[in-house]
Amino acid sequence: MTIPTAVAAPVAQNSSQEAAHPPYKLPPPIFDARCRACWFIAALLVLVVASFVSLDLDWAAFASMEAARSMGRFVAEFFPPDLSPVFVNKVAWGAWETLAMSALGTAIAALLGLALAVPASRLSDQDSAWLRRPTRWLLNALRAIPELVWAALLLISAGLGPMAGTLALALHTSGVLGRLIAEAMENVTTGPGDALRTQGVGPVRVFAYATLPQVLPQLMSYTLYRWENNIRAAAVLGVVGAGGLGQLLSFHMGLFQMNKTATILGAMLLMVACVDALSFSLRRWLNR
Amino acid sequence: MSASASHLPIARPSGLPPVRPLMKAPAHDPAFAARVLWLSLALLLLWPLGVATEFRLWVLWEPENRKVTANFVSSFWPLVYNAEFLEMLVRETWRTLAMATAGVTLALVLAVPLSLLATRVLSLSALSGRMDRWPAVLRWCVRATLIVLRSIPELIWALVFVRVVGLGPTAGVLAIALTYGGMLGKVYAEILESGESHAAQTLMRNGSGRLQAFVYALLPSHAAELASYTVYRWECAIRSSVVLGFVGAGGLGQQLDNSMKMFNGGEVATLLLVFIALVALADRVSAWLRKALA
């Protein structure tokens, strides 16, 4: 008896509010002390203005004719790009190295991320998951430090070269993938795992035959997506000396060999464009 | 009640066949051979990659490398927290934040007009079927510009600008502005073209201008999505402004680079901690803002 009245009450209230002609209202004032959005916009403006004021940006140097001329000279030096076969071979090897760095780094990251995702997730209600919190902290730290900073740190122990870059990509990406996989593992249906567990199957086999098959498709798609990102990242990692096209770029730019720099930049653009096109068509094909 | 009932033998009428016992679980993994095959195939494919990247993990374990690493890592503790260093830390953190904010603001200045030019929904000639040739060419050119802007990484832009305007935050701000201008412009145009375009088309059919159609039809229905993408990109810009410091654009990254070159582990550890805290804070703020906008 009580339920129908409880449902009916708000409906009656609503219909009484909806008059045939709503009363005309003035637009709200531009700033109202009780309006949270107004305070937010004001804070945003202050942040933007303070940023520009405090940065001592050198507009004069940039907007002057002299800067425009130096920019023009700089761009003109790029032409013509160095297309001698020896150098093109070198750039092609750099591009292959970049591709290999990104692929190997992403593969290692997928394995490492999976290994870290297990302690970082609560796989069943009986699981005490005491490592969950610390492992998540570790994953967040791995993720928060960019690839380039990891590369600069790893150069100290791995030396100059593509291995430092590969390890840097692997560490950063394993933080990203580990967190995503841990979320995915906690969200899978518990039915298959529970069925195995009630049969007395141990945790390793429950993971291998119930949890892993369920997260594997997601793991694959995240990994492919990160690989796409990592190709781009790998191209610039070399700027700190971690191999690939970036190392060639910073080397030749440092020597002011602008024709060679132009070739390397072109190769970078071409590679990124190819990867974009490939992933676009792949995604379209998958979503068909 | 139901749990105990399930253990009772099921009474079957005599005419029906007996209940088949449950299938016995296989003792071994039935797909074992296939798994081993795929795994070894994958390893075989990874081998040339390892060769190309000179991936020799044992190099890390060589005595002299191990000593250098151990020395560097052990110097992480104690953290450096004298007054002078802390003051520098606060100044550089603000600089990093300001570079990201100024860069994204300039990126907006670039992205908003370009995305309006690139949006197909806001084309008057497309109302009557096919878009005219010159507007189509213009849209295509704007799109190509946006794609080129965003496909050159910000670090490369920064390297170029450091050469032109010299070391300092100007190069970093300009690098962020160009790359993020491209990204924001492309995604804005995509957002504006997604969803229902009926309202905008109705306004333009009835004689409103393109800007009016944008302000009164497209903007209200996509404002939350546009704003939340902008906030997300601001968060990304904070991360990349640290990275830009490594090529001389100032901020936390440059200090990190300096401390690393001097093998000053304590400073490196403090800077990394501050950086992680900054990223976590930006992550929180951005998640909260996007939730409030949704």
CATH class of chain A: Mainly Alpha
CATH architecture annotation of chain A? Orthogonal Bundle
Mean pLDDT of chain A: 84
Distance N terminus to C terminus of chain B?
Answer: 48 Å
Structural class from helices and strands of chain A? mainly alpha
CATH classification class of the largest domain in chain B: Mainly Alpha
List the helices and strands and how they pair.
The complex is a heterodimer of chains A (288) and B (294).
Chain A: H1 2-17, H2 36-54, H3 59-63, H4 65-77, H5 85-117, H6 132-144, H7 147-158, H8 162-187, H9 191-198, H10 203-237, H11 245-254, H12 258-286
Helix pairs in contact in A: 5-8, 5-10, 5-12, 6-8, 7-8, 8-10, 9-10, 10-12, 11-12
Chain B: H1 2-7, H2 32-52, H3 63-74, H4 83-118, H5 133-151, H6 154-165, H7 169-193, H8 198-205, H9 210-244, H10 252-261, H11 265-293
Quick overview:
Chain A is mainly α and 288 residues long.
Give an account of the 3D structure.
The complex is a heterodimer of chains A (288) and B (294). Chain A contains 12 helices and no strands. Chain A has 288 residues and is mainly α. Chain B has 294 residues and is mostly helical. Chain B has 2 domains: 32-74, no CATH class; 83-293, MetI-like fold (Orthogonal Bundle). Chain B is extended, with a radius of gyration of 30 Å. Chains A and B meet through helix 2, helix 3, helix 4, helix 5 and helix 6 of A and helix 2, helix 3, helix 4, helix 6 and helix 7 of B.
Structural key phrases:
heterodimer, A: 288 residues, mainly alpha, MetI-like fold, 12 helices, extended, B: 294 residues, 2 domains, 11 helices, disordered N terminus
